Sequence to fold (138 residues):
Amino acid sequence: MEKPNYSGLYHLVSQENFESYLTGLDINFALRKIVCLLKPSKHIEHDVTSGHMTIKTITTFKNFDMDFTLGQEFTEDLGPVDGRKCQTTVDWEGDKLVCVQRGEKEGRGWTHWLEGDLLHLELRVGDVVAKQIFKKAE
Fold:
């Protein structure tokens, strides 16, 4: 089965349990309040042939870029998020993108999947799960 192409620009339309997720990452109260007000956009470039991806999360406060090849572990600098580094692998699980971030925080990672023009993001740390939904820009 052919894998979906995630390329595109997506804008946040909803999120749930995000503050609990940030608490799980030990983000301080003031920063959690700011981050929860942000309406991030995601700009994804996905080369289906090579499996190379770039995911840029863009906000008015701070931007965060991920650059990786599917199935290859890399050192991810999460400095802009919570000041940590971790060993990260993103790979396919069916037609979902599953990210495992090994480091100080157990059970950390995320899953992306597409449903029509919606990009779903489930964020995990420990036993906390947050969800965000983004809509593809026209």
